Every structure is written in C-alpha cells, then in structure tokens.
Amino acid sequence: MYEFSTLGWLKHVIFHPVEGFEDLRWKKQGSLALSMVIVFLLFVAMVVDRQLMGFAFNTAYVKVFNVVPLIVRSVVYFFVWVLGNWAICTLFDGEGTLKKICIYSAYALVPYIFGTYISVFMSNFLILDEAIWVNFISLLGMGWSVILMIQAMRAVHQYSFAKTIASMIGTLIAMLLILFLAVLLLSLFQQVYVFIVQIYQEIAYRIRG
Amino acid sequence: MVSKLKKCLICAVSAVMAFTSTAITAFADEPYNTYSYDNWGDPIPSQAGYRVERTVTGLDMGLEQLSDPESDLFISENENPQLSGARDFFIDQNTKTMWLADSGNNRILRLNMDLEVTGVYKTFTGGTISTLENPMGVFATSDSAGNTTLYIADSDNQRAIRTKITGDMTAEIEVEYTKPDSAAYTAEAFNPSKILADKEGNAYLVCTSVSTGALRYDSTGTFRGFYGANRVEQTADVIARKVWRVFASDEQLQAMTSSVPTEFNNFDIDDQGFVYTVTESANASTDAVKKLNPAGYNIWDNAVGNKYEFGDFASGYDESTAISTKLTDVVIGDNGVINILDYETGRVFQYDEDATLLFIFGTRSTPSEQEGSFTAPNAVETMGTNVFVLDGTKNDITVFTETVFGKYVHAASVLYVEGRYTDAQPLWEEVMRRDGEYTLAHVALGKAELNNGNYASAMEYFKTAYDQEDYDKAFEYYRDDLLRNNFEIIVSVLLALVILIIVYVKLKKHKKIKSITEYIVILCRKIRNSFKKSKKEGN
Questions:
Q1: Is the pTM of this model over 0.90?
Q2: B5 in contact with A, Cβ within 8 Å
C-alpha cells in the first residue's frame, strides 16, 4: 500500500489533509529537492501576482519593479519560518528535524501557489464585476494551505491540535525575533566594515605620505 | 570608498542642478515648472495652460486720480495711490466690472476689464456708519439694466452691508446685516470676512472663527440660520476624546473642550445656485473643498465613496516646499471650471466641472520675486480666458491668460464634461500633439474610442493613462465582442474536448489504454493516418 512516486506523494498529501502527512511520515517519504522547487515556485508566484495580474485587478505600483521585497516575502520568510519552527519545537518536544520541517512546510504551500497562478490567469479574462471568482480562488488556495500547514506541523512534531496552534504562533514570534536580529547584525557588520575600510585607508595614506 | 561616494554625490547634485536650471529656462518666463498629476497621484511635467500676461499695481490702475483735485474721482489730497492689504475682489460677469475690496485703505474700487479704476466708494449714505473699516469681502450682482447691488463684508465695523450703486463715487446702504440676536449664534465677536448672495437675494456671510457654517440672511436682512457647516475631522485626538467622554465624570466632562470643526474660509456661487466652499486650515482632509446644494448638503462627499481630491498630493515635483496646502479661495469660471487658490504654495489649481485636474500654475515668492509668484495670494477671480490673482502683500493683481494649449484643453474639456466624447476627439488629439503625457487626454480619447466601438484602441488609451475602471469597461465590451464573433469556433472546440474526454474515460474503464499520454499518442497517430489517407485519395 501507498507506493507513490515523489509527485504522487505530493498529490496524496494535498488531497488527504487529514491523514496525508501522517502517511508521509510513516513511510518516511518527502523530497528536499521537490520542496526547493516549490519554494522557487512560491517566489515565481509572487512575481506573477505582481506583474501578470489582469490590468484592472492589479493594485501594485507597477512603475517600479524591485525583486528584493518579493524574494524576502517568499524565500526568506519560508526559511525563517522553518528555522523558527525548528528552534521553537525542539524546545517543546517536537519530533521534527530541520529537513522534515522544510519538506512538510513546502508541501503545504502548494495549494496557495496554485491558487495564485489560477487567479492571476483568470484575472486576465474576467472583469471587475466578476472579481469574486478571482478572490474566491486565491482565498480557497490560501485557506487550504493554512489547513495543510496545521496538519503538516502536527504530523511532523506529533503534537496535539492545541499545541500545534500554540507552536505556530510561537513560530511567528520567533520569526520576528530572527528578522530583528538579522537586521541588527547586518547594520552592525556594515559599520564594522566601514570602520575597517577607513582604518585601511588611513594606514595607506600614512605609508604613502 | 568615502571619496568615491562624495564624487558620486557631487555628480548627482550637479546633474540635478543642471537639470532643474535648464527646465526653468525652458518655460520662457514663468518662475515655476508647470506640472500635473497622473492617475497614481504622482506629479508629472506638463505644458503650461496659463502664462502671466502682466501684473497690475495701484498706479497702473490709475489710483493717483484719487488724490488729483482735477479728477472726477478725487477723494482727498493724501489718498493712497496704491492698494494696501487688499483681501478680496469680485468680477461681475454681466457688467464686466471688477469690484475690489482695498481693505487697508478702507475703500471699494470699481475697475473695468483693462483694470483701470472707474469708481471708488469710501462713504456710503443711509447706514448707521458711513465709512468702511477693513472691508474683507465683496460681492456684486446686477440686473439686466446694469444696476449693481454691492455686498460688502465690513469686518471691523462688525457688520455687512448691501448697497445700491448710484454713481461713480456714491452708493446707498439698503440693508445692514448685523450680529444675529439669536441663541444659535454663540460667538462673542461678529467679523464678517466673506459674503455672497444667491438669486433670491439671500446673503451668506462667512465670519471669522464661526465654525457652525455661513450665516444666512434673507433679503430683508433677518438672520435665518446657518448654512453648510464643516464636519469634525476624525483625528486621533478627536477619537481619544470621544472614548474618554464615555468614562469621564461630570466634572471632567465640563473641563473638556469640545471638538469643533474648522470653519470654511471662502466660498463662491455658480449659475445654478451651488455654493463651493474652501477650508484654509492646513492640510485639511475632511471637507477641504465642498460643493453645497441650496439645502446645504455636500455633493462632493468622500465619505460616501467618492474620490474628490484637491490641491497638492505630493511634494515630489517641487522639493523646496514640503507639501502643505491652505486653500484660500475658490471661483467658478465659464463652463463650470473651478479655480482654487492655495495660499501656502501660491498655486492656482484649475479643475473641470467634475473636479478633474486641468492645470496648476503660479508659485510662491520665496525663491524668486517674479511675475507669477505670490507672497500673500488672497483671492482668485476669472473672466473669460483670464485668471486674476490678488496679492495682499505685493499689492498687485496678476493677470494670467490662457495659452494655445490651454485653449485646446478648455474647448475639449467642455465637450468631454457634456459626454460628447466623439465630438471632442479631434480637440484632444490636438492636445496630445502638444503634451503627450496629459492624462485626461488619454482618458478622453479612450472614452471616444469606446463610443466609436473601437474597444481595443480604447483599452490601449486607458492603459496608458492607467485608468483601471474605464479599462475594465472597455475590456468587458471587447470580451463580449470577441465571444460573439468567434462563437462557432469556441463551441466546436469545447464540444470536441468533451467528446475526447468521454472517449478517454470509457477507454480507461475498459482497460484499453493505460495513461493519458498513451491516449494522446494514439489520437495523434489516428489524425496523421487520416490525413495521409485523404492525401492518397486526392492523388
């Protein structure tokens, strides 16, 4: 029973929100490479959502296109989520490893990504009066992904439902902390860098002088 | 590293300076860059719709006649031949005369449209006080015979008056509007600053520091109530106070100040009896500009989902000034064109009847004291193709006249506002030839194309103007058209697809094929074979 290909497992997990991730765990399946592809597709979805949305639906400021916020909103947030979740849950008896958390989280994001693609595609053929369909599809994808994410975290750590929710809220707080520290470190190192450069220049002038 | 940065900075600064200085000289003589706003609310360069024709001082008006004993308009030997702190003026479109409240000199001047003085009014018969004291507002109506009734907000005399003009220097007070003897009027002082009258002879007075609206008097001079008060702007402070009010004790309640709306400072009335008000309070967002119907109801209400915006949105175009608006005067010109004067930036914002921006012109004096810049722009008026701005510190009137570009835009805009999009099309194309970035031209041409049934081209225009709502409308028609014209193809393709899917399901059920790829391969082979067969038969 349950002999699937890699993509077959992904399909199984998505369409069996109740026990899909448990099966995945039981059979020790899930591909890290596939999860990386999914994260890349998440980034592409962000770009597509901003750039290829139907003209009347697009609320983005399309005069300038900056890819950095989109990378942050997809790739960086994803890895910070994985890291934060791992950090929180190892402290609270979670059974998930870093790799597993990464794989399971990525799998759970697939409905959201597809919802985005489909709604962007539809927005090019629909008018604003029919916007409810575009919103419906993207909300459906998002809701589905949220449910899958809860199930994924539950399965990977073998938590109860309440503990899963608590750990996810904890993860969000951990993400904030990590990002705050990252920004702090970046600005610190930038100052150190400038300091070193200036010392080097000073010495260089003296030697020449 | 640092020196590189410095070099870059110097380069950038000099580039910006070179850019701005050439940009200023490119526009011949106006000391400002003309700009407009696109659909994003971003400032973009634009052609000038108005240029400065001349500035007129008191001497140019011929005010030395007032102190010349030989003249008909002689008042006294030491009458000031200049304006002094003039606060308001009004142009009577019927008789083509300008009435100017020369506040500092306590007199009213009558000028013809060449801005030469033809009458001066300093003393009035028939009232309790015969002279004026700091007249801050003036308004005139005239009947078909040319008899003028002049309304004056005689601020420091604590009254407003309605007078009948009987000669070049004589006028008779008909009605005096005084402080209302009513419990509704709670202010201590009564300093009317602006005045206007509707066709029924009702007078409306804006009084300094009265926030309950304009005071309405009937034609006999009896107080009839307030008109069109502003609402309180919902700032954080106001909301916090509302919350406190729920918990506060009676003593605390008494100590609390109540939230009072900022009063509107100026108004104008159009031919249809709508009153337009402007609020001078800096950066007011609630009720900054209102269009009131005769019942005092604001029909430009953003609270009900409209999007009426006036004045500057961004400081991007002119970095020297932080964005700050103090809308001080409004005047309605021909065809319902609205001119709004911003005291802070010295700019006149011109809108069409539907409050769509047409032109921005004028500037502040601070960097350069030149024609077209203002120190204390107090009032704006319009007559035909001219716009007049009264400066109370420079004591002159600046006359702006419409450029060729402005002429085309105005002509096109009149037709556009009436909804005659196709008639306006050649005019808008003329506008586009002169300024390809003029947003309204793109929208208007799009609407014309939509009217003509060229949906694809309409969509293109709306896309350029980034007008999403109109694009959506055009796209709806375009899509309907596309579906209707290709109905047979679409239906047959859908039908074929359905049949193929049914066949696939049946085949799979009977285990004749394994996967969808196999099915497609078989289908392709069959189609190729049938083609080959038909070819052979043809041979």
A1: no
A2: no
